[in-house]
Design brief:
This protein is an alpha/beta fold. The chain is built from twelve helices and 19 strands.
Length: about 450
């Protein structure tokens, strides 16, 4: 009880959504304000859901929510803030590409056009860099015909790029000059931080511009996001590589299949792929540090596997084991540290280890990273993107700002951007997901060497 109470008292969040002003315009979307008439109802700002489904023991005859904070439901309101005839909406896709970006674009354009009658919709090329003062890329006029079949393709018709998000003054200047009053930014942690800062500068200037985020991260590492769009597709695209590595390993003398997938600081793709394809014997993620040498190191367990089963498959996330390799000392345009290639490093170390052990092995290394993220969205992500994009439009038209669309406990909600980027979502190595991975791979729960302490 004390432990749970302490946890409950600690878990307090601010889920209040910022508004540009009071919505006074009757929406053009015809829905219902009452139950039982066969039509969907409008969503009210007071419609809120508990953030967590976990409960805590009260010591009485009932339990109460572990986290009492509530989140605002996403969806169309009966009154909106912006007059559709006066709206100039813009959308940009930032960072690395991800399955579902075109689906988001299509959903946003179609919702603006068909549901609200907005006729000025612009696509910003190459992320925030397309909004900088000296950008060589003009805005692209978007309408339903332009986006008609783009959901069939991977990537984004607008192009995507890192950087530019810190040049807030220039971006807001551009929004003013082009009379843009809604900006929908599709991107990950860096993009959303930029969106929040843009919103802050807009407030300083007293402007009425809505900034809405659609969370995009193939690593699934944003907090308060049940699942990022494109993640399901990414796992599905990773499975054939693992399957191929397994076939190669089984058909070679002491074969070892090594597959590297994306996952800078969060190993969700690797963890889920391990469960989707039960051929993985060792799943290595950033959240669970490991040694490669020593009595409890990876290679000791790998050697045992090779001697007993004659083959093995290793699946590693790109951010795992970075402490084992020399730092590159470099950063990308978003300020992210450029990681050394742990896959190539591990491949060479495995070959060296078994050569010194006098054991013949055949190591096959597969890196499907860019194949995975360039895939077109599967049906699950297509549906998810269609709904996320539409909810972003509903939020913007009702005057919400500095928030993002999300899904929590299978309900679509709005989350303040500031809250969403406050911490990174990672695999809980004491949680059920990692427990199931360990059970599936049958790898040790830890592959760190423990130093003996002399008494």
């Amino acid at each position: 009880m004390d432990k749970q109470k302490a946890k409950k008292d600690f878990l307090k969040y601010d889920f209040d959504i910022s508004n540009l002003g009071e919505p006074k315009i009757i929406t053009p979307i015809i829905m219902s304000t009452s139950e039982g008439d066969g039509r969907a109802n409008y969503v009210d700002d007071e419609d809120r859901l508990f953030f967590s489904v976990d409960t805590v023991d009260t010591g009485k005859d009932y339990r109460e929510p572990l986290v009492k904070d509530t989140v605002e439901r996403a969806g169309p309101r009966s009154k909106i803030y912006f007059n559709p005839a006066h709206v100039h909406a813009a959308i940009c896709t930032c960072g690395g590409i991800c399955p579902g970006l075109n689906n988001i674009l299509r959903a946003v354009v179609r919702c603006f056009w068909y549901r609200y009658g907005v006729r000025r919709i612009s696509g910003v090329q190459y992320g925030y860099r397309g909004l900088l003062e000296n950008s060589p890329w003009p805005l692209i006029s978007l309408n339903p015909d332009v986006v008609d079949e783009i959901q069939e393709k991977g990537g984004t018709i607008l192009g995507s790029a890192r950087g530019g998000g810190m040049q807030v003054d220039e971006i807001v200047d551009s929004l003013e000059k082009m009379n843009i009053n809604i900006l929908i930014a599709v991107g990950g942690d860096g993009t959303l931080r930029g969106a929040y800062d843009i919103g802050e500068e807009i407030k300083k200037r007293g402007l009425k511009i809505s900034v809405i985020g659609v969370p995009k991260t193939i690593d699934n590492d944003l907090s308060f996001i049940q699942s990022s769009f494109g993640f399901d597709t990414a796992v599905g695209a990773a499975v054939p590589s693992v399957r191929g590595a397994h076939v190669e390993a089984k058909n070679s003398i002491n074969g070892i299949g090594l597959v590297k997938v994306m996952g800078r600081e969060s190993g969700f793709i690797a963890a889920h792929t391990s469960l989707a394809q039960s051929d993985v014997n060792f799943c290595l993620i950033p959240e669970s540090p490991f040694d490669i040498y020593g009595n409890n190191g990876l290679f000791t367990h790998l050697k045992e596997r090779i001697l007993t089963r004659k083959h093995a498959v290793i699946l590693i996330a790109e951010g795992a084991g970075q402490e084992l390799v020399p730092s590159t000392g470099e950063e990308d345009a978003s300020g992210n540290v450029k990681y050394a290639d742990i896959g190539i490093f591990l491949k060479e170390e495995i070959k060296k280890f078994f050569k010194e052990e006098g054991i013949e092995t055949n190591v096959k290394y597969i890196d499907p990273s860019y194949i995975i993220r360039s895939a077109a969205a599967n049906s699950y992500d297509s549906i998810y993107c269609a709904r996320l994009g539409a909810h972003a439009v509903h939020a913007a038209m009702s005057g919400k700002t500095q928030c993002l669309t999300s899904q929590i406990n299978n309900r679509f909600v709005l989350i303040p951007i500031k809250q969403a980027v406050s911490k990174r979502n990672q695999v809980d190595i004491e949680g059920s997901l990692w427990r199931d991975v360990i059970e599936n791979t049958r790898q040790p729960s830890s592959m760190k060497n423990v130093e003996k302490i002399d008494n």
